[in-house]
Amino acid sequence: MFRQLLLFSALLALTAFAPVPDRAAERDLMILTIENMAATAGAERHRTIDSSVLSAMRKVPRHLLVPEEVRARAYQNTPLPIGYDATISQPYIVALMTDLLEVRPEHRVLEVGTGSGYQAAVLGHLAHHVYTIEIVEPLAARAKAQLAALGYANVHVRAGDGYAGWPAEAPFDRIIVTAGADHVPQPLLDQLAPGGRMVIPLAQTDNEMQLTLITKSKNGGISREKVLPVRFVPLVRSGS
Ligand code: SAH
């Protein structure tokens, strides 16, 4: 009887202290899917994703940044609703956009469209500092709290209209816009450092949207490369 009780308490203690599953196996599968998609079905001129990007994505607990309702599906290679008409992009698109940015450890990165905070967390592993702006206040507040709870001290979140960029922290080595625009906001071009790169989904005249890579040369010249047709929620303006 005593031994049974001992066994029972030992089992109870084990369950109480068992680590919460961190879903690492699902993340590994997600990474394989991203690599596979990049190699076969994604952007033609970008068949591989840099290993630094993949290892950052292997670390971020995506399930803890999306709302409870969609947590079970967090690691599927699909976009997911995160409330307030916003969506978190599918993992392949996050990987591609991050890869295109070519972030280095000394970089200061601006993100427009914080959403869940997932993309910002991925960038947080790669950059020195990440500044991210979200126009929907409750989304900004939720992302800010979650990122702080997860220990992302180098990711700075603010509510506001990202069209205007973040002048107090400019210039930025890299800028990522995660909502679809019909033109490149001039303030963002101005806040991009010489030698900088920007990734932005841009609506075309035929209503298609193209993920676009913009580079600014050392002497300020701008060039554009269309990378892949994509779908994104629209970049809205405050007061519109
Ligand atoms: N990067 C996010 C997904 C963003 S979805 C993630 O990892 O979860 C696009 C987001 O852009 C939405 O949350 C939307 O509210 C926001 N947004 C749209 N227009 C904006 C603007 N002008 N400034 C800042 N955020 C904007």
Shape: globular
Unreliable spans are none
Distinct small molecules bound, one entry per kind? S-adenosyl-L-homocysteine
Helix content: 25-40%
Main sheet specs: 7 strands, mixed
User: Looking across the biggest beta sheet, what order are the strands in?
Assistant: 5-4-3-6-7-8-9
Radius of gyration (CA) equals 20 Å
**Residue share in β-strands:** 15-25%
Please give the count of helices: 8
In round numbers, the mean pLDDT is: 93
First and last CA, distance: 72 Å
Give me the strand/helix succession.
HHHHEEHEHEHEEHEEE
Number of strands: 9
Class based on secondary structure composition and strand pairing:
alpha/beta
Mind sketching the topology for me?
Layout: H1 2-17, H2 24-40, H3 51-59, H4 62-65, E1 80-83, E2 86-88, H5 91-101, E3 108-112, H6 118-126, E4 129-134, H7 137-149, E5 155-159, E6 172-177, H8 186-191, E7 192-203, E8 209-216, E9 222-229
Parallel strand pairs: 3-4, 3-6, 4-5, 6-7
Antiparallel strand pairs: 1-2, 7-8, 8-9
Helix pairs in contact: 2-3, 2-5, 3-6
Could you characterize the architecture of this molecule?
The protein is α/β, with parallel strands linked by helices. Helix content is 35%, strand content 24%. The protein has 8 helices and 9 strands. The strands form 2 sheets. The protein has a 7-stranded mixed sheet with strand order 5-4-3-6-7-8-9. It has a two-stranded antiparallel sheet with strand order 1-2. The N and C termini lie far apart (72 Å). The mean pLDDT is 93. Bound molecules: S-adenosyl-L-homocysteine. S-adenosyl-L-homocysteine binds next to strand 2, helix 6 and strand 4. S-adenosyl-L-homocysteine binds at residues 82, 86-89, 112-113, 115-116, 118-119, 133-136, 139, 161-163, 178-179, 233, 235-237.
